[in-house]
Amino acid sequence: MIYIFFYVFHLSSAAVSSDCSPQGDFDRPVFMTTGDFTIGGIFPLHYRVELPPTDYIKRPLAAQCQGFDPRAFRWALTMKLAVEQINHRKDLLPNRTLAYKIFDSCATPVTAQKAVLAVLNGHDIVSAFICSKTGNLLGLVGESGSSQSIVVSRTLQPFRIPMISYFSTCSCLSDRKQFPTFFRVIPNDDYQVKAIAQLLKKFGWTWIGVVTEDHDYGKFALQGLKREIENTDICLAYHEMIPKDYTREKVLRILKVMKESTAKVVVVFSGEGEFYPFLREFMIQNITGIQWIASEAWVTASILAESYPFLHGTTGFAIRQGHIPGLEDYLKTVNPEEYPSNPQVQELWEALYGCSPSISLNSHLPSCTGKETLREEHSAYMNTSSPRVSYNVYKAVYAFAHSLHNLIHCTPGNGLFENFSCADFNNVFPWQLQHYLQEVSFSVSGEEVNFDIKGDSIPSYDLINWQRHTNGDIQFIKVGLYDTAQHAGKELVIEEQAIMWSNQHNKVPVSVCSNSCTPGFRKAVRRGQPLCCFDCVPCDIGKISNQTDSIDCLSCPEDYWSNMNRTMCVPKVVEFLSHDAMGITLTVIAVVGAFLTITVLLIFLYNRGTPIVRVNNSELSFFILLSLTLCFLCALVFIGEPTSWSCMLRHTAFSITFSLCISCILGKTLVVLAAFTATRPGNNIMKWLGPTQQRIIIFSCTLVQVLICTAWLVVSPPFPYRNTKYQQSKIILDCSVGSDMAFWCVLGYIGLLACVCFFLAFLARKLPGNFNEAKYITFSMLIFCAVWLAFVPAYVSSPGKFTTAVEIFAILASSFGLLLCLFAPKCYIILLKPEKNTKQHLMGKVAK
User: How far apart are CA 739 and CA 759, in angstroms?
Assistant: First the structure.
């Protein structure tokens, strides 16, 4: 306890003896001036840090910043120029001066935090770093990297000091709960990834690689890009992260993945400092064919363009450019002679000219005067034709100036604080400045500058393409823009003909895992692979795809079918027995049959007085011939497109005419049977089969069929039917029978008549006489029954129009069978053997 007391007493005595003394190594500002209002600035004047070895024995040395960045040095000088311009203006902060303190962050979060702490401490250079109080910092311009800005913003948050970033784009910084004092004059990455996603869709790049830096900027940008392409055809072939602790082995592993991948488009979210050494190894490995898509962090990095000419063709979105008056002349005034004690100016000369303007034992470069003239080729430093990040720095400084101007010119009663009071402009607090910063709105270089509720600015980008000039230099050419103020779907405008792709090609590079599926095919995802990797499978029959890369094939409507290429639905072929080759053949046969029947009828009429015609009642023969003519002609009703009337007519006409024909044959059979049995003594059967009775039999048998057909037509008549089930590629247009029972009743009744007729004729086949007509009736009925028995299975099994053709064939075949069996023998005797056309010959009484 005594030791502790003496130790505390010693500290108290030290505190009395001096105000305070800095603990640790505090870097001096790169640039510093005094004034009424002080704002800080943090810039990555070096793009990497070398950490000293730690042995845990003695105190470690401070980290060493390496790799001077002339581009970032230009940003710092832009802030310095803006403050000097504001201090010379009479309309902005009159009678007040703006001061600045500019520090180097070395592009790393730890050094950035060290820099912001240095800005917060009130260093007094004159009194040898003896601090008397904290600094009167009102705001901070910084930082470039998102990870650095996160650290800096959280460090400033307890002091409620606002900061405006000129190059931090991470969408995470828009969270007002975590970063309530953060503002920025650059769009956040949510908009950049939307623009990149639209660019990928525009050129059909569905298979991409992504390389990010191992910081919050890269991580959140990747998350945003994945979110944008989640419901699209774009897939990530790989995602590689540039390691924080840079080692060649890790970079070679990344390059191996890039070299083996089929993805030819690579999106890079990285600062130029992290990307620079990666590209050096990339060039050594001689990897070609990559189309780079740059984020805004490096798309206008002149140092990369000068160092790696293979990056020509790189395309990406850059923040909008603006005009900074006097910047070029101001940059030319900076030289070692004007700033002899500024080490960063010395490094600038070493980076631009490769020489050392001061005599230093640590320098291995040749010496130079420090009065060399800056030239156009020093684009990393002197590129003022289209300033972008520098323009953002310029706007950030003016945002602070306009906010301070509004604060000190506040009218009592119109203030932003309690009871509409104003701030004490002689004692301004940072949190008061933040209120005015949130409401500020001003114009600079023709652009309106303000902040939304999240501290973000209006998002808009230029589409930049790296093109190699004739002298070998790479130029940043604007080939389009992305403006979120436009209507949805019209934000991205591209001049495609102005783009020069990688390898100096004008043709858009292809980066797909699988080639597009042409119309007529669908995509089939490969198992275990991303959605962008698929096989093209032809559409099934009856389905189509009329677009490229169709996910599924569409079924054609019922009356349509797919064409041969499966690209469109065409009307199905309507099939029916038309007047084609088959239809014409059947028509000719039917007409010939009817003509032969009429010819026979005419022969019989001409020879009606002869015994061969008169035998067994010539009237029945005429009835049979007339009905057979109708049978032949009713076959014509079956040919042609079915209609309601033709469907009803074809079945009823067929059934009634055949019933009439078989009824007549039945009557003739009864007459034949009765004629030969009447010769027996005491048999008087012929008086019951006279002409009248014969007509009654014919009429009655036909009437039964007529009644069946009438009931059929009344209850369920035949109708046209479009059969789309039997053959999917065709519509079979046929007549549905309506009632199957009625149809089979009709056929059954005709079959019944034929069987009765056959049975009776069979009984009379051996009766005496040279012309026994019963024998021919037996043959005719045998043929008739055979035809129609064969018709039933053929009718059931035949597809399409062949069903109708089979029915017509059965009608014609049975009609020809009846005609030939019943009338061919008689015509033979009438025409060729007239000497046999006598009663004696027919009765078999001619002497041998």
Answer: 30
Contact 399, 165 (CB under 8 A): no
572 Rama sector, left if φ>0, alpha if ψ -120 to 50, beta otherwise: beta
* CA-angle at 485, arms to 481 and 489, nearest 5°: 70
Please report where in the chains the tokens 């790169």 appear, as a residue.
30
- Looking at CATH, the fold of the domain delimited by 20-186+389-437 is given as Rossmann fold (3.40.50)
- What is the DSSP secondary structure assignment for residue 701, as one 8-state letter? H
Beta bridge pairs of residue 134:
121
CATH topology of domain 587-720+731-843: Rhopdopsin 7-helix transmembrane proteins (1.20.1070)
Rounded alpha-carbon distances, angstroms, from residue 205 to 235, 451, 508: 9, 35, 10
How far is it, in rounded angstroms, from Cα 417 to Cα 440?
A: 15
Q: Cα–chain-centroid distance for residue 566? A: 19
Same fold, 20-186+389-437 and 189-295+301-320+459-504: yes
What is the CATH number that goes with domain 521-572? 2.10.50
**Closest C-alpha to 199, from 462, 411, 534:** 462
d(CA 321, CA 2): 67
**Angstrom distance (rounded) from CA 595 to CA 589:** 10
Length of the chain: 848
Name the percent of the chain in helix, strand, coil, to the closest 5. Answer: 45, 15, 40
Token pair recorded at residue 781: 């009925």
Structure confidence by residue, pLDDT tens digits, 194-244:
999 999 999 989 999 999 988 888 888 999 999 999 888 899 999 999 887
pLDDT digits 0-9 by tens, 506-526:
789 999 888 889 999 999 988
Q: What is the CATH number of domain 189-295+301-320+459-504?
A: 3.40.50.2300
> Look-up: residue for tokens 């913003």?
153
C-alpha 637/C-alpha 435 separation (Å) is 96
Going from N- to C-terminal start, the domains of the chain cover 20-186+389-437, 189-295+301-320+459-504, 521-572, 587-720+731-843
Q: How far apart are CA 58 and CA 643, in angstroms?
A: 108
Strand pairing report for 163-165 and 137-141: parallel
| Residue found under tokens 């005491």 | 682
C-alpha 597/C-alpha 605 separation (Å) is 12
What residues contact residue 788 under an 8 Å CB cut-off, 6+ apart?
747, 750, 751, 754, 810, 814
Its sign, for the CA torsion 761, 762, 763, 764, is positive
pLDDT in tens, 39-81: 999 999 988 787 777 777 777 777 788 888 888 999 999 999 9
Strands (E), 5-145: 31-32, 37-43, 46-50, 64-68, 98-104, 137-141
Cis? peptide before 143, omega within 30° of 0 = yes
Termini Cα distance of the chain: 169
Task: State both tokens at 256.
Answer: 């191996």
Q: What is the dihedral of CA 320, 323, 327, 328, to 10 degrees?
A: 90
For residues 641-657, one letter each, b for 16 or more C-beta atoms within 10 angstroms of the residue's C-beta and e for the rest, the string is: ebeeebbbbbbbbbbbb
| β-bridge partners, 467 | 475
Q: Which of 574-588, 705-719, 784-798, 803-817 has the highest mean pLDDT?
A: 705-719
Q: Residue 445 has what DSSP assignment?
A: T
Give residue 25's Cα distance to chain centre. Answer: 58
Which distant-in-sequence residues (6+ apart) come within 8 Å of 840 by Cβ?
A: 846
CA-to-CA separations, 711 to 22, 652, 661, in angstroms, rounded: 119, 11, 21
